[in-house]
Input
Amino acid sequence: MKQHEAVIEAMTQNGGYATLGQLYQSVPKIPDCKWGTKTPFASIRRIVQTNAEFFKIRPGLWALTAEKDKVMEIFTETKPSTKSKEYSHYFFQGLVVEIGNFKGFETFIPSQDKNKPFSQQKLGEVATISKLYEFTYPNVLQKAITIDVSWFNSRKYPHSFFEVEHSTDIYNSLLKFVEFQDFRVNYYIVADSHRRAEFDNKISLSAFAPIKPHVKFWDYDAVSELHTKISASALAEQALM
Output
């Protein structure tokens, strides 16, 4: 099998699209294809960038040209369907979970999201813990179990909380974060870049003054690019061991 055919096969298995980080993980596992290196990442990047069989959805995220209509129904930002809104939400939720896994954190998602699709997996198969650590009072934990993605450190305390806002109100997520103002936690709103102005406007409200220094806006492109970089770094390290 030729190298570009292996990339096509891996992307097909992933639903017709994939981040570069996902391709780094899956393409070398395609049988009957020789790469001549343990880390063929540069070759994979070149293949998707220079072959007409692929097109770029956004930085770090690529798809099969033959599946363009279907894929763009999922990732479109202009009048997306309810189904595409949900799928995009779960896709970026899964990327944040994988980034946390690569960085050595334990990761948690709400129970209602565990059967939601992430590429060809379920989100519950990507997160590393199925029960939230009881790091505080029960009434506060009831808020914590609804956070889209939580990263926990080795001492079982929260390190970072993420809310993915594909189409829902950023204000409500900021209200959740306020509940944890007494903890030293990093807070992230994950959304498309066109929502940055909305975020800036709402985080400036006086109600959010206690958490404003600790809340960051993380756009989808940045998530995809970090997923790519951290996947390459982790896989390269594994290849050397």
Q: What stands out?
A: The two ends are 28 Å apart (CA to CA). Residues 82-102 form the longest helix (21 residues). The chain has ten helices and ten strands. Strands lie at 17-19, 54-58, 61-64, 106-108, 117-118, 121-122, 149-152, 158-164, 186-191, 215-219.
